[in-house]
Specification:
With about 250 residues, the protein is of the alpha/beta class. About 35% of the residues lie in helices and about 30% in strands. The chain has helices at about 40-45, 85-90, 110-115, 125-135, 140, 155-165, 185-200, 210-215, 235-240, 240-245; strands at about 1-10, 15-25, 30-35, 55-60, 65-70, 80-85, 95-100, 170-175, 200-205, 220-225, 225-235. The chain is globular.
Length: about 250
């Protein structure tokens, strides 16, 4: 479904992502774990088109989202030219993104936030999508006219997830869904993530809670200082001694 090939991303002179390659197959949950600042969020932002590639290639199904090519200028010097799909087109192609920190629109109502998730939809008959979101997140239905900024942290996370689901994505990118939530809410959110996957949505999950992330995933990747250092079946990654010591507190 999604193929990321040898991507490199810079922030100014800082080489944030170094030759990262990963694959997400249709129907999977793939977890990407690593410490703060390792580059997890940068990878998701690059897939969504919010960060530019310096080099590499990203493909969704058979469509190239981003690619870089070498071009010589008039002085004979080689320069990488990045070409890609703009972020709103990425959404149209079926990628949803639940960002780190939720990023709801605080002065808009729950309903208005959900409608923003469907802004690229050509058909505006959204009853089925609202029904789907409210089935997974009944609390959002109870607060449909409430301003998003007045919701609790857990409710805002539910809203961010519901907003992404309004476009019925084929692939859902999730960035730190457990951040700042109480343990009981974290368990609830992860149960919903499993339910979303079972209903047919493929998920690429970035999460600091490595134990939880790997427990629901089919496969896992470990990133350290911008590089993938380990990949494999989630169970095998979770049992790796270095992973257990660094991320599972053992």
């Amino acid at each position: 479904m999604l193929t990321v090939e040898n991507i490199n991303v810079y922030y100014g002179a800082i080489h944030a992502i170094r030759d990262v390659s990963l694959k997400v197959n249709e129907g999977e949950i793939v977890s990407l774990i690593g410490a703060n600042g390792a580059g997890k969020t940068s990878i998701l932002r690059t897939i969504s088109g919010l960060n530019k590639l310096r080099s590499g290639k990203i493909t969704l199904f058979d469509k190239v989202l981003y690619d870089t090519k070498e071009k010589k200028n008039m002085f004979g010097k080689t320069k990488s030219i990045s070409a890609g799909v703009p972020p709103h087109k990425v959404v149209e192609l079926g990628i949803g993104h639940v960002p780190e920190g939720r990023r709801v629109f605080p002065y808009m109502s729950v309903k208005e936030n959900l409608l923003m998730g469907a802004y690229v939809r050509k058909d505006k008959n959204l009853e089925k999508e609202f029904e789907n979101v409210f089935q997974k997140f009944p609390r959002l239905k109870e607060r449909i006219n409430q301003s998003a900024g007045t919701l609790s942290g857990g409710e805002q996370q539910m809203l961010a997830m519901g907003r992404a689901l309004m476009n019925h994505p084929k692939l859902l990118l999730m960035d730190e869904p457990s951040m700042g939530l109480a343990p009981m809410l974290v368990e609830e959110i992860f149960n919903i993530i499993k339910e979303i996957n079972k209903s047919g949505t493929t998920i690429l999950l970035v999460e600091q809670n490595a134990h939880l992330a790997l427990s629901i995933a089919n496969r896992g990747y470990v990133i350290e200082t911008g590089e993938i250092i380990l990949e494999g079946v989630a169970k095998d990654v979770a049992e790796n001694p270095d992973v257990r010591k660094a991320y599972l507190g053992e």
